[in-house]
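Example record for the data management plan.
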Amino acid sequence: MVLTQSERHSSTWMKIKVHLEERLSAQRLRLEGTLDLDETNRVRGRIAELKTCLKLEDDVPTVA
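Corresponding structural encoding:
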């Protein structure tokens, strides 16, 4: 799934994007702390999911 041009510029997406970016920053900060291996892996998984959500606004190249 990819967002359309109008969806990318909607106020709703802008609010969601800010929220996702804030959560991403918080999770990255957690990785700098002392975590056991299991918690480190959980945080990395959360980071991967947040990045996936943020990629919804990326343009998909057109295949000719």
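Summary line stored alongside the record: The mean pLDDT is 92.
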